[in-house]
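Q: Predict the bound structure with zinc ion.
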Amino acid sequence: MRVAVLSDIHANLAALDAVLAAVPSVDEVWQLGDIVGYGPDPDEVVGRLREIDARGVRGNHDAAAIGGLGIESFNVDARRAMEWTRAVLSDDTKAWLRALPERLELEALTLVHGSPRDPIWEYVTTGPVARAGIAAMPTASGLNGHTHVPIAYLVEDGRLETMSPGSGSRLVFEGRRALLNPGSVGQPRDGIPTASWLLLDTDAGAATWQRTSYDVASVQAHMERLGLPERLVARLAYGL
Ligand code: ZN
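A: Predicted complex:
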């Protein structure tokens, strides 16, 4: 099966639509949570994912948006954006978000937002956390997001390998235990402002990371009109 894997779209419809236009023929689109939060188009992004029958899981921002998670631990900008998101989300969108699972197994892969052992909150940013997450997976390999940075962790014969993929990087993970992060569609944080995502061939056990340009300035202008926090507007141009 060929799958486009998207994560951390964060209510950025322009980025999502640019990615969907760039996706070649695939069987399914999977998403790894944080569909809403930060960005200006939460209902529209959920609407688009529903149109294309995307399958996936809930992130911490999605949980916060439906009141399933407090926002005391969010930083001040994330909290302001979440208060705005909560105020504008339609009941229909909230019901759809509420139905998302925290974990999903598809095609022998585990899908989570954060980490396999703590799907909502844990950030996989170090080797030991990656190793623990990989050990906690019921499947050999899995997909996660949350950090907004594309990365792959692989374990073979007890050795942990890390790969920082660039645009077009291909990885054959078949036969190894792997945790793959596509990076973020709507708010990349690896210093590159283009939307980051993953093309997966589940039969070959292969993944190719992709970057897609979108009109960042128009999203920034849209966010400014809505009064969303200035720092969240600015960071889209830097990919940080
Ligand atoms: Zn996120």
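A: The chain is about 30% helix and 20% strand.
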